[in-house]
TrEMBL record:
Molecular function (Gene Ontology), one example: monooxygenase activity
Entry keyword annotation includes Flavoprotein: yes
Entry protein name: NAD(P)/FAD-dependent oxidoreductase
Family as reported in the entry's similarity comment: Belongs to the FAD-binding monooxygenase family.
Length: 536
């Protein structure tokens, strides 16, 4: 048994920064990481076209002025290899690797109420005893392989986008089938199509995708932004999306615009690309009427791009509001369907019956291909936490406690699980906002709380039941006022059969969330029970 002050699970962007903070606090710490390198999401998701949908200069750490000045992002939106290179640079620059245990999977964590310690067990047999346990396990880190009959019979290669081979895959001369048209599908389809002999896309739900208009970073723009980095980062911290790229103050209401003004606004936001199309409109996610008008503009773009009208119609999303499933940000996605070597199968109209030895059978046809790509998503937000056997007070299992849906306080702590913190857990706004800024905010808040506990000789920090219930209520009441609840999305756990349908993220924006957290800290953490030696 190895003793530590802090054990962190996961060496993605949250875990790395958490480690840096704990190192600075002079506490003993180990990060336990399943992969053989840092980067988390960006370590695993190596599929062709994998790219961040937040602009790179914003999707990067802000905690070190030197780091943000010295790092050069070559493109407006960084591709996965570039982000992974950045993660490795950060690990080296801040000497993080000395405290990271790679290729080790945590299987169990149990709280000892007598000793006030967590015991953390790993697959390799190494066991740690720690005062604080911090789960930086990611919100989209447990890939979902769909329950398709016959999947094990398929004679060709099966690849999941989130488990892509490190050496890459050469599809030249190969026929490929792909299931899934969320972000991973939308990003990989254009690249696979360029390489494969033929690509068949199996689409269940058409999603809304806005072009990224990605391109090389312009030197003047980079220099200008770096000059103003401090102010831009500050603006991000007071914005809805935690991102200075979108100007909250310029937000307009679709319903208040004349039809001509709307068209101009939609076209402007379309040309800006990506999430500009979502964050520009104040009523987009609350008014079905406004949303439908914005959705129809996108459908018009799809119809204008895709030459075959039948294919265009299949690609036009019609069964959920724009943005209620996370918007995709693409490079030549719709254009790809004009290629001769790409076919689209609407599996809502013609559902998959089974996977066969040589492909896939839908109700109406047999489809043959050499390789099958699953771009089928993740057991989001709770999957990585419930996969580990986490037991708090009285041996209560987190998985069982959450069987009717997750309950957390601020997405950071769980009642009954003292001295355990979750970064980007359910109840946090992170999946709606700039994830790296969310990581920084969570990490800084947790570090401050640990620092406070250490200074006050507190041995247990635990979220209170009432505070947790109030937060859980607030989450669902806020979400119910929006259109986010109107789709079968992973936000609601709807992509996992049997998962309770509970809206998991906090929707009221980074700025609101951060100020609630700040307020809480400045008032001495009401809502938490702190057991301190001085007070016992
Ligand atoms: P997503 O967004 O969950 O997309 C998964 C896709 O796979 C989606 O089109 C699903 O259709 C489809 N899917 C999942 N299971 C099946 C089955 N059984 N049959 C047919 N189709 C299926 O995951 P991504 O990896 O693309 O993106 C996740 C996040 O990563 C993304 O939101 C960004 O934040 C980055 P459905 O829509 O459920 O009908």
């Amino acid at each position: 048994m190895e003793d530590r002050d802090v054990v962190i699970v996961g060496a993605g962007f949250a875990g790395m920064y958490m480690l840096h903070k704990i190192q600075q606090m002079g506490m003993s710490v180990t990060v336990i990481e399943r992969g053989d390198g840092v980067g988390g999401t960006w370590y695993w998701n190596r599929y062709p076209g994998a790219r961040c949908d937040v602009e790179s200069m914003s999707y990067s750490y802000s905690f070190s002025e030197d780091l943000q000045q010295e790092w050069v992002w070559p493109q407006r939106y960084a591709a996965q290899p570039e982000i992974l290179r950045y993660a490795n640079h950060v690990a080296d620059r801040f000497d993080l690797r000395r405290d990271i245990l790679f290729e080790t999977t945590v299987t169990k964590a149990e709280y000892d109420e007598e000793a006030k310690r967590w015991t953390v067990q790993t697959e390799t047999g190494r066991t740690f005893r720690t005062r604080y346990l911090i789960m930086a396990t990611g919100c989209l880190s447990v890939p979902k392989v769909p329950e398709l009959p016959g999947l094990d019979r398929f004679a060709g290669r099966v690849l999941h986008t989130a488990h892509w081979p490190h050496e890459g895959v050469d599809f030249s001369g190969v026929t490929v089938g792909i299931i899934g048209t969320g972000s991973s599908g939308v990003q990989s389809i254009p690249l696979i199509a360029k390489q494969a002999r033929h690509l068949t896309v199996f689409q269940r739900t058409a999603n809304f995708s806005i072009p990224a208009w990605n391109g090389p970073m312009r030197a003047e723009r980079e220099a200008e932004m770096k000059r103003r980095y401090g102010a831009l980062r500050q603006r991000a911290r007071t914005s809805y999306a935690g991102d200075y790229t979108y100007a909250d103050e310029d937000m307009v209401s679709i319903l208040e615009l004349s039809p001509e003004e709307r068209e101009l606004q939609f076209e402007k936001r379309w040309q800006e690309g990506g999430f500009h199309y979502q964050y520009a409109f104040g009523d987009l996610m609350v008014s079905e009427q406004a949303n439908e008008i914005a959705a129809e503009f996108v459908r018009g773009k799809i119809r204008a791009t895709v030459k075959n009208p039948k294919v265009a119609e299949i690609l036009c999303p019609k069964d959920h509001p724009l943005g209620s499933k996370r918007l995709c940000v693409d490079s030549e996605y719709y254009e790809t369907y004009n290629r001769d070597n790409v076919s689209l199968i609407d599996i809502k109209a013609d559902p998959i019956v089974e996977i066969t030895k040589s492909g896939l059978r839908t109700r109406e046809a047999d489809h043959r291909f050499d390789a099958l790509v699953l771009a089928t998503g993740f057991d989001a937000m709770t999957g990585a936490l419930t996969k580990i056997d986490i037991r708090g007070r009285g041996g209560v299992s987190l998985k069982e406690q959450w069987q009717d849906g997750p309950r957390t306080y601020l997405g950071l702590a769980v009642a009954g699980f003292p001295n355990l913190f979750t970064i980007n857990g359910p109840g946090s706004p992170s999946v709606f906002v700039n994830m790296i800024l969310a990581c920084e905010q969570h990490v800084e808040w947790i570090s401050r709380l640990i620092g406070h506990a250490e200074a006050s000789r507190c041995i247990e920090i635990e979220a209170g039941d009432e505070a947790q219930e109030a937060w859980t209520r607030e989450l669902s009441e806020s979400a119910d006022k929006t259109l986010y609840v109107k789709a079968n999305s992973w936000y609601l756990g709807a992509n996992i059969p049997g998962k309770p349908r509970i809206f998991m993220p906090y929707v009221d924006g980074f700025h609101t969330y951060a100020s609630i957290c700040e307020n809480m800290a400045s008032k001495g953490y009401p809502g938490f029970q702190l057991s301190c030696l001085d007070r016992l």
